[in-house]
Amino acid sequence: MAREKIALVGIGKIAMDQHVPALAASADWELAATCSRHGSVQGVPGFTDFADLLAERPDIGTVSLCLPPVPRFDYAAAALRAGRHVMLEKPPGATLAEVHELQAMATERGLTLFATWHSRMAQAVEPARAWLAGKTVNRAHITWREDVRKWHPGQDWVFEPGGMGVFDPGINALSILTHILPAPVHLIAADLDFPANRQTPIAARLRFNGGVTADFDWRQEGPQTWDIEVATDAGPLALRMGGNVLEIAGKTVAGESSIMGEYPALYARMADLRRRGQSDVDLAPMVHVADALTLGRREQVAAFDF
Ligand code: NAP
Question: Using a 6 Å cutoff on CB, does residue 46 contact ligand 1?
Fold first, then answer.
C-alpha cells in the first residue's frame, strides 16, 4: 500500500530525536513536508508558515505536531479546519478544555485526532497491564527522576505557564499508571517545589487514593530513574526504564532497556486509527496533573537556571 503523506510541525528536540527516525523507518508514512520557524529536515520540503503549508500541500492529509503544548492548540485547530488528521505530542495541550474543543472539532469533521502518550507504547506496558488485570493493587509508587538539563536543554518554555514543569516528564509516568491499574485512582494531595525564579514546579510528590504515590524530580544528575513499583495480592510488579522492562517478583520477564520502539509504535497506531476512521484521546494523565496543580501545596526552592 502507498505510504500516506504526513507533515511534521515544530522541528526541535523531539522531532529530530524520535519523530524523524520513526517516520524514515515507517512503512505507513512518508514525511512530505515540515513546518518550523527555524528547524528543517534535510531533503524534506520545509515551510516556515503553517497556513502556507496547509494551502499549498492539499496532498498531505495528516499533520503531526511536535510543538510545546502552549502554541499547539492554534496549529491543531487550523489543521482540523483545513480537513487534516492530527497527531498531538504529549501533553496534548496546555489545558483540558482546549483538547475537548479539538476533540469536538475532529468528531464534527470525521477526522482522526490522536493524543499520543509515547510512554504507553513502551514495550513492557501492555504485559504489565495484562498481568495486573483482575488483581488487587495494595500500593504503587512511581519514581520519575531525571535531569532537565539533559532532556530540555535551554528550553525555558517548560518553566513558563503551561509548560507544566516536572509534570512534562511526570505525565509520562501517569500515562502508564492510568493505563495499567485495574481500577482508577484520584489525587488526594500534592507537594510542589517551585524554583524561586520559575512559574512551574521542578519537583512534585503526589498522593492518590488506593495507596498510590509518586515522586517526580527534575534535578537528578547521573543515572536517570523511571520506575513504577506495584504491590499486589499476587506479589510485586515493577516497570523500569520508563515502562520498557517488566519485573515480576524481582525477575525480569519482558522488555528491553530501550525507548526506541515507542515512536514507531505511535506512528503505527496513527496509521491504524486512520484506516479505522477513529480517534484516540485519553485525558486521564492530564487530569491528574491539573488536579495536582489545583490541590498542590506550593513550596519555594532554590532558583533554577540552565
Ligand atoms: P522544543 O525543541 O523546545 O520545541 C520544538 C519546536 O517547537 C521548536 O524547535 C520550535 O521550532 C517550535 N516552537 C517552540 N515554541 C514555539 C511557539 N511558541 N510557536 C511556534 N513554534 C514553537 O521542544 P521538544 O523538546 O521537542 O518538545 C516538544 C514536545 O514534545 C513537548 O510537548 C514535549 O513534552 C514533548 N516531548 C519532548 C521530549 C524531550 O525529550 N525533549 C520527549 C518526549 C516528548 P521553530 O522555532 O523552528 O518554530
Answer: no
